[in-house]
Each structure stands twice: as C-alpha cells, then as structure tokens.
Specification:
Radius of gyration: 20 Å
Structural class: mainly alpha
Distance between the termini: 27 Å
Strand content: under 5%
Shape: globular
Helix content: over 70%
Largest sheet: none
Oligomer: single chain
Order of helices and strands: HHHHHHHHHHHH
Length: 303
Amino acid sequence: MSKIKINQNVLILHLTILIWGFTGILGNLISISAIHLVWYRVLIAAISLFIYLVVSKQQILVSRKDFISFIMVGGVVGLHWVLFFYAIKVSTVSVALVTLSSLTLYTSILEPLINRKKIAMMDMIVGVVIIMGIYMIFQFESNYIEGIVAGLACAFCASIFSIANARMVKKSSATLITFYEMLGAFFWVSVFMLFSGDFNEKMVLNQSDLIYLLILGVLCTAVAYVLGVAVMKELSAFTVALTTNLEPVYGILLAMLIFGQKETMSLGFYGGAAIVLGAVFFYPYLKTKIEKRKQDLVIRKIY
C-alpha cells in the first residue's frame, strides 16, 4: 500500500469526523426526543442510499447470511445513536463528544479478542490514559453523570460496530453495508418504539427540525457513514477509532462557536479533555518511534 493512498484515506477520515462532529450540533438544535431523532435519521439515510444505489445501478441484493449480519450490526448502530443524542440532551455536546473517546479503550481490548490477536500494550496504555481523562471529567462534572454514562455506553456500541464493519467491508461495498445497516437501525428502533408507545404526536416536526434532519440524514449519515466505512479497507479499526477521538475537538469548537456560553464547562472538564486529546495526538508519534526501534533491532540482528 502506498504512502499517498494511506494519507488520502486519513484525509477522508478526518473530513468524515468533522462532519460527525457537526451531528452533535444538529442533535442539540433538533427539538424532538433522541429516539424519534434517530428514527427519522436512519429512515432518511436509508432512502438516500437506496436512491443512490438504484441511480448508480449497483447490486442491491445480498446473501441471507450477509443480510442478517448487516441488520444485526445496524441494531447496534441505532442503539449507539440513541445513546449519543440522549447524552447530548441530558448534558451538553462537549460532554457527549469527550466521553465518546472511550471508544479507543474498548477497541484496544475488543478488536484483538474478536480477531484472536495479542492485545498491544501501547494500545492499552493509550486507552487507560483516556479513561483517566474521562474520570477527571466525572469528578468535575457530577451534574452530568447521566450524560457521561450514556456517552460511555454509546462508545462501547461504536467500538462493536466499527470492528464488525472493518471485517465486513473487505467482502462487501461500503455503500451496500451502510444501506442495510440503516435499514437494520430503522427496523430495531421501530420495534422499540412500537413496544414503548413512542409512535405518538411528539414525532410531529416543525420546519427547522425537518431541515436539520435532512442535513443529518443525508450529509452527516448517508455520506459520512459510507466514507467512514470505506476507509476501513485500508485502515485498521483501531486507527479509525483513535482518529475518531478528534471528533470532540471539531465538535466542541463548533459547539462553542454556535452555542457560546451554554457550552462553557469547568476547568476540570477541559483538563480531562486535554488528557484525552493529548493521548490521541501523542500516540501516533510514540507508536512510530517504537516501530522504528523494532525495525532497527531486526536489521542489527540480520547484519
């Protein structure tokens, strides 16, 4: 794999994460509940992707095995988004985005276990440092505990479907996977709403909600999700998870720009966020140094 190709995929990943960072802003602007928001979001995304697949004359039918896999993973995606938007509505965009960074710790443990590989100590260390940062946020933002817990659960779900997508994208197209996962998310969220009685008058949208939902469903979901899955053909799930930790940077800056004083947090919060983001920025440099040292040792043994 060429270095240019890797850099191109990393660039696409950063663009995707910037768009994802904007989803938190939209989640805060949309007035309906988290469950209704996700229901509309995945419905709009599924329709958008279906139209794209038909217009581009791509194969839509998949095997029964793949269909079941996509639909089940879609359920995890749906749960992830419900928890994410719920975290925003009971806390702030900043809290939800920073707690989502625990995705790295979950992935550093789960990816090797699922793929039957040895857990990398460096990945674990980075994950633990991130948890330390989140613990610091817990200490200083106790009034947002419900949102923090929802954010951590949201990150766990994100880790699960990221690992699953990294495996599935090697056999199927990112667009097709995303389409069926949106269908799966829509199905499982609809089932939950049916039993919880959430198909009610609270689903009625005003004009601004409709506009925001269209942006959220088409750009921030259909387009961004396809891009996010596509880069996994070249990048590992952990690399994607690690880079995804930049979502709080983009999201918090956008939130502060748009919502101003409402998004201002305590110094303890920003201290914890700095620990989390510091680990993200420092990790690639440290890992490169370690790998270079290993290569040098191998060369010395050979010669």
